[in-house]
Amino acid sequence: MDVLVIDGMGGGIGKAIIEQIRNSIEDAIITAVGTNSIATSAMLKAGAQMAATGENAVVYNAAKADYIIGVMGIISANAMHGEISLQMAQAVSSSKALKILIPMEKCNIMVVGVQAATIQSYINEIIERLKG
Q1: Pairing of strands 67-71, 50-53
Q2: Which of 29, 58, 84, 88 is most exposed, with minimal Cβ within 10 Å?
Q3: Helix, strand, or coil (residue 90)
Q4: Where in the chain does DSSP place strands (E)?
Q5: What does the mean pLDDT of the chain come to?
Q6: Which are the contacts of 38, defined by CB distance < 8 A and separation ≥ 6?
Q7: Which of 33, 46, 22 is nearest to 97 (CA)?
Q8: What global pTM score does this model have?
């Protein structure tokens, strides 16, 4: 199972996601892509087997992932204070991978019908989805 985790800013959410996957799913091959080197470093330290940074890394890895995990903003150009480019958002959106996205109103996207929860609750749900 090829899992792509995308995060930006400080990489804290991506780090938490990777730690949980690493502790729960043995056969997961995790690639971490940060929109900046700080986020990439945090996710690599959390246990990702591979890591890269930037727009081309998102475009390349989104095309080959089975699952793409991140906050809702990774499908929206200019999210994360401009760290998500149009090309990144298009690559994630058009990927054949199953996208498992965490709703965050900070990305200026609100999904009606989704109950507000803690990040940890969302990560627990991600793990359950990955386990199948």
Answers
A1: unpaired
A2: 29
A3: helix
A4: 2-7, 29-34, 50-53, 67-71, 98-102
A5: 95
A6: 9, 10, 11
A7: 33
A8: 0.94
State the greatest distance between any 2 C-alpha atoms of the chain, in Å, as a whole number.
35
Ramachandran category for residue 47: left, alpha or beta (phi over 0 → left; psi -120 to 50 → alpha): left
- Residue 106, CB-side half-sphere exposure with 13 Å CA sphere: 10
Residue type, 48: A
Q: Is 11 left (phi over 0), alpha (psi -120 to 50) or beta?
A: left
The predicted-structure confidence for 15-32, as pLDDT tens digits, reads as follows 999 999 999 999 999 999
Phi-psi region of 111 (alpha: psi -120 to 50; beta: other; left: phi over 0): beta
**Residue 12, CA distances (Å) to 40, 94, 100 in order:** 10, 25, 17
Q: Residue 96's CB: how many other CB atoms inside 10 A?
A: 10
10/66 Cα distance (integer angstroms): 25
Q: Rounded distance, CA 87 to CA 75, Å? A: 10
